[in-house]
């Protein structure tokens, strides 16, 4: 076997120049990306200072097989990127990124100059047909998100489904995952888990979704925005049970990585007091079967109708029913008002 020789990635092969030419065709990709100096590396991201030297361990550039490559990228620490991911990003014809400015930090750090195009939730319906056309022409296209695996609570799922439907090759390039990292570090059962993603931002809808998960015995994993974390944990405690164990994983793999462990009730109280910043994943113990199941919508409505038919005002009916059924009052108020309007 021929020994691998260290090389400087800035000495790009002729193929890179050709692939950049057809990826830059304005008729195919209407968006122009201006050349600009790469942003400085964030101070809270730990990684090797000589990123370009890592590529010395990767084989010489070669054409990738045609297809859509789903590439995982670091969730914070640049050292977590895989050698295979770097090779695919280097050798692909072009890269689709959720945020080009953010992803350019990673590519610049490792001296990867593959053409970068934006692909996010606001333009994916427009770009999808163009990407499928390029795949039909035999292109190799890498898809990345800001962090972790694309299409997991990130753009890309629709494009991947369309590529599969069109019988194009879809190649996963696995790597960092906030879901799995938080699960294995949580200390909670790992043999069965359910990834929920982000809960609805509206409290009543969030509580309804949580009530649907109350009986799930698998460990539950959520993404959560830091500014509403305390409210989310309060709803979890009220709906799932305040004694359930949970872990709030914050800024994983970064300089200020932190795991807050305890009961839902306890951690919710802690977050109310000190607040929270950064990327957050919440891992919650599954149902033990001993907790009382959350009442169904039909049970809630029946209870409210009974109280309102007895002349209780809608607001007070919601308060009484919430106490009787063990659910947050805010999740019942809209239903109570609707019933009151129907009954006069």
UniProtKB/TrEMBL annotation:
- Span of domain Tetrapyrrole methylase: 68-266
- KW Transport (keyword) present: no
One of the GO BP terms on file = rRNA processing
The residue ranges of the RsmI HTH domain are 295-339
For this protein, the record's PROSITE patterns field holds: RSMI (PS01296)
Q: By its UniProt entry, which Pfam families does this protein fall under?
A: RsmI_C (PF23016), TP_methylase (PF00590)
Q: Which UniProt keywords apply?
A: Cytoplasm, Methyltransferase, rRNA processing, S-adenosyl-L-methionine, Transferase
For this protein, the record's HAMAP family field holds: 16SrRNA_methyltr_I (MF_01877)
Q: What is this protein called?
A: Tetrapyrrole methylase family protein
Q: Which organism is it from?
A: Coccomyxa subellipsoidea (strain C-169)
> What is the taxonomic lineage of the source species?
Eukaryota, Viridiplantae, Chlorophyta, core chlorophytes, Trebouxiophyceae
